[in-house]
């Protein structure tokens, strides 16, 4: 329909939900009758996907024709916590999300075979959007995991086997627990085609251990990205078992399609190989900016001095360095935040 969505977690306090609804000027609320009472007072039109289903089912299955829809229209607004405690409302446009999908499709070879993707992220995070478009835009199936399964590797593994999951993106903590269960139960992940791990740091010895529980056809990839650059910006895949030292952080790798990564000093000058600098991201996946926060948008999205097309760079706040082989290695946050996505 060409609209933008704002995910509202029903577990959020009503005060926060009320602030998000008012701040984003939400006009329509999609919910379910059983959780409708959790919503704060608001003026938006409510559509209950369960109670109103008979009316919804009578609508035509075709997409509505919207001649006003443009690539730069908003696709979604994600609320993230800022270092000052004030929420950042990241605005992602349709063209950025489409570009991200095609980058995944090319790198992960999503259309090579029919796939079944496991969805583990809360829908209030942008990773959920990534799982959704990777699966459905490539003609695959998306399996939604219950939240409690993330703390129960046995239940999670059984779900993967039952639904014939062959693609999944994990955070390291959940993957560690799953591999520990596999080790104790003498089970394996030979059925996986694509295993992506991201949103936190992990080490070379873990890469090798995770890899040992997979089949020869399984691709094990480390992903790196930010909400402000549409989920993922770079990826790394080891080519040999000897490529990563045990205590080495798994590199964040190289840029996805139509994305540029720069490691710059405080004067926006490139740093030499091996020298720490801040990661700046450019390219087609950059967000429009922060909703209702023009000063912060100007501070974090700066003119790209290396672009002739008046491009922008996103200032990530991540310190990193180039490795001799051209891959990028994350060091730490400049503001000492814990990186969770």
UniProtKB/TrEMBL annotation:
Keyword Endoplasmic reticulum attached: no
The keyword Metal-binding belongs to this UniProt entry's keyword annotation: no
Gene Ontology MF terms in the entry: phosphopantetheine binding
GO cellular component annotations of the record: cytoplasm
Alphabetized Pfam families for the sequence: AMP-binding
Keywords: Phosphopantetheine, Phosphoprotein
Family matches, as SUPFAM superfamilies: Acetyl-CoA synthetase-like
Gene Ontology biological process terms in this record: amino acid activation for nonribosomal peptide biosynthetic process; secondary metabolite biosynthetic process
This protein's name: Nonribosomal peptide synthetase adenylation domain
Protein source organism: Dulcicalothrix desertica PCC 7102
């Amino acid at each position: 329909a060409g609209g933008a969505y704002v995910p509202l977690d029903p577990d959020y306090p009503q005060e926060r939900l009320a602030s998000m609804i008012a701040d984003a000027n939400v006009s329509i609320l999609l919910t379910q009758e059983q959780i409708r009472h959790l919503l704060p007072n608001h003026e938006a039109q409510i559509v209950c996907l369960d109670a109103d289903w008979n009316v919804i089912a009578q609508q035509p299955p075709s997409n509505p024709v919207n001649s006003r829809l443009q690539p730069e229209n908003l696709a979604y607004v994600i609320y993230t916590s800022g270092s000052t405690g004030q929420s950042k409302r990241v605005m992602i446009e349709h063209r950025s999300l489409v570009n991200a999908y095609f980058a995944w499709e090319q790198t992960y070879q999503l259309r090579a075979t029919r796939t079944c993707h496991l969805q583990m992220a809360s829908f209030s995070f942008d990773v959920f959007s990534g799982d959704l478009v990777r699966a459905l835009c490539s003609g695959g199936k998306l399996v939604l995991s219950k939240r409690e399964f993330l703390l129960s590797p046995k239940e999670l593994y059984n779900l993967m086997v039952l639904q014939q999951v062959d693609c999944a993106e994990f955070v390291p903590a959940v993957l560690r627990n799953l591999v520990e269960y596999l080790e104790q139960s003498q089970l394996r992940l030979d059925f996986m085609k694509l295993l992506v791990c991201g949103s936190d740091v992990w080490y070379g010895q873990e890469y090798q251990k995770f890899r040992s529980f997979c089949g020869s056809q399984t691709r094990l990839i480390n992903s790196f990205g930010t909400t402000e650059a549409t989920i993922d910006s770079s990826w790394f895949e080891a080519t040999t078992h000897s490529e990563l030292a045990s205590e080495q952080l798994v590199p964040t790798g190289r840029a996805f399609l139509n994305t540029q990564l720069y490691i710059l000093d405080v004067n926006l000058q490139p740093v030499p190989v091996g020298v720490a600098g801040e990661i700046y991201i450019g390219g087609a996946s950059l967000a429009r900016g922060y909703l209702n926060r023009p000063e912060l948008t100007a501070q974090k999205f700066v003119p790209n001095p290396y672009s002739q097309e008046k491009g922008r760079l996103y200032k990530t706040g991540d310190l990193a360095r180039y490795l001799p082989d051209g891959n990028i290695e994350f060091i730490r946050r400049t503001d000492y935040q814990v990186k969770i996505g």
